[in-house]
Amino acid sequence: MGVLEEKKETVRKVVTTKEGPNLKGTMIAVMLLGGFIVLSWFSVYWLYMVRL
Amino acid sequence: MHMHKLERLWLMIGSGALILFLMVIGVNAFAMGHTPPSDSEILDPTQVDLTAPFDDPGLKKIGENEYELVLVAQAFTFQSNDEIKIPEGATVHFKVTSKDVVHGFQIPKTNVNMMITPGHINTITHTFDEAGQFLILCNEYCGVGHQAMGVPLEVIK
C-alpha cells in the first residue's frame, strides 16, 4: 500500500509542473532542416541560371 | 489560447513562406507571362505528316541568328529532314509533337526539358552561346527502343 501511494505522489508532481515545454532544441532542428531546404532551392536556381 | 513563442515564430515563418511563394507564382504568371514549356495549340495526332509545319520537319532560319527547329517524335527517333547544325549564339525555337506516345525532350547541360504529348504542339526556346556537340534525347520511357532515342545537335563556330 505504502509503495502505491508513493508512486501516485510522483505522477501528480510531474503533471502539475507549470513550466511550458522546452522547444529550443525542436526550433534549432527545424531551422537546420529549413536552412538545408532553402540552400537546395538556391542551388537549383543557380543551376537554372548558369544553363540559361 | 496560449501558444509557445517559438511555435508562434515557426507558424509566422511558414505562413510568410506560403504568401511569398504564391506572390512569386502570381508575378511570374500574370506580370511576366511565364508558362510551362508547352502551349495549348493542338493537332490531330493521326494526321501529323499532313499538318504544317510537321509535314516538313527540320531546321528553318526565321531571322537574324534565329531558327525554328520542327521535329516529329515517334518511337524511337526524332524526325528531321535536315542535319541539325546551328551557328554559335543562335536562338532556336523548338516545335515538337508526337505521332504515338508521350516522349521526353531533353538536351543535357541546357534548360531544354519538356514532355512531348501526342496531339499537342510543344514549344521551348533556347540560345546556344557555346559551340559543341549536344544530344537531343527522350527522357520519358516510351518502349523497348527508348534508350536509343536521341539525335545529335551540333553548334558550330
At a glance:
Chain A: It comes from Guptibacillus hwajinpoensis. The complex is a heterodimer of chains A (52) and B (157). With 52 residues, chain A is mainly α.
Write up this protein.
The complex is a heterodimer of chains A (52) and B (157). Chain A is 81% helix and 0% strand. Chain A is mainly α and 52 residues long. Chain A has a domain at 21-52. Chain A is rod-shaped. Chain A starts with a helix and ends with a helix. The mean pLDDT of chain A is 80. With 157 residues, chain B is α+β, with helices and mostly antiparallel strands. Chain B folds into two domains: 1-34; 45-156, Cupredoxins -  blue copper proteins (Immunoglobulin-like), CATH 2.60.40. In chain B, the strands form three sheets. In chain B, strands 1, 2, 3, 5 and 8 form a five-stranded mixed sheet that branches. In chain B, strands 4-10-9 form a three-stranded mixed sheet, with no helix packed on it. A two-stranded antiparallel ribbon of chain B has the order 6-7. The radius of gyration of chain B is 21 Å and the shape is elongated. In chain B, 19% of the residues are buried. The model of chain B has no long low-confidence stretch (mean pLDDT 93).
Shape of chain A: rod-shaped
Largest sheet of chain B: 5 strands, mixed
Helix fraction of chain A by DSSP (H/I, runs of at least 4): over 70%
Distance between termini of chain A?
Answer: 78 Å
Number of helices of chain A: 2
- CATH-assigned fold name of the largest domain in chain B: Immunoglobulin-like
User: Helix/strand-derived class of chain B?
Assistant: alpha+beta
* Beta-strand content bin of chain B: 35-45%
Strand/helix succession of chain A: HH
- Major pleated sheet of chain A: none
- Report the C-alpha radius of gyration of chain B, rounded: 21 Å
Strand and helix order of chain B: HEEEEEEEEEE
Indicate the CATH architecture of the largest domain in chain B.
Sandwich
CATH class of the largest domain in chain B: Mainly Beta
Count of helical stretches of chain B:
1
Q: Which parts of chain A are unreliable, with pLDDT below 50 for 5 consecutive residues or more?
A: none
Helix share of residues of chain B?
A: 10-25%
Q: Radius of gyration of chain A from the CA trace?
A: 24 Å
